[in-house]
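Hey team,

Filing this mostly as a record. A colleague (T.K.) asked me to run one chain through the structure pipeline before their review meeting, and I want the input and output archived in the tracker in case anyone asks later how it was produced. No errors, nothing strange. Just documentation.

Input sequence:
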Amino acid sequence: MQKRIESKKLLYETERTLGCIFGALLYAVGVNLFIVPVSLYTGGLMGICQVIRTILVDYFNLNVGNVDIAGIIYYVVNIPIFFVAMKKMGKKFLAKTLVTVTAMTVFLSVIPSEIIIDDRMASSVVGGILSGIGIGIPLRMASSGGGMDIVGVLLIRWKKDFSVGKVNLLVNIFLYSACLFMFDIEIVIYSVIYAAVFSIAMDRMHAQNINMAVNIITKADTKAMEQEIFEELGRGVTKWQAVGAYTNEKEQMLYIMLSKYEISRLKAVVHKYDPYAFIVQNEGVRIDGNYLKKL
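Output structure:
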């Protein structure tokens, strides 16, 4: 039974990791085939890396051939972020994020930046949809594209009134203000349109600020399960004894508040200890009190 559970868990994590890689590919396609060829800039940390790339290539005459080094710069900038986040984030989340960011860097470096649509409005919309879905997929798979996603989580843990959205907004204001001085206003306007479409597409794939109340009913010993929930998700657990009305058997009921972003990780932990556990999810609940907002 234990071997079968471990085998299912391995297959589950493998499928999710492959999903992260596919999302990274979709993101790179959206950026390299629709955004970079028409000289637009994405938001967040990647947008900053694209500006650095432009400065190095256009102002310092760095010869990189046909390779877009923005992805490589993004990877280098993420390295210190990974080190800082190592103790704060779950190991699986960090490992899958590392895979996602590595795949993004590879795809951004090898996919040629060729014009498919010679129209900035169409390119910004199509590119925003593709790259937004590409980032949303890893978020659904309990991973992320690195950069401001991780920084946002760390800032939330430092100061609770922060949010990932606020962090991204502040970074984008700084980024597009700099672009306004460096480039013409048309580039900035279409880049902002891209960022808006990107955010909508990403949220469609992954609603990151939806709170959930989860009830878990299990006959298994929950001590190890509770400990792993603490370590993997950093969430508290309320529990009480229950009795099945039909079987008259004693059961444990666990009550957990978390974001929709974390639900897949919670299920993986629960099914590891009890594949037959009864899990009830209530979505969109309102929470007041000492509740930690995450991604």
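Quick notes for T.K.: The mean pLDDT is 84. Residues 101 and 263 are 22 Å apart (CA to CA).
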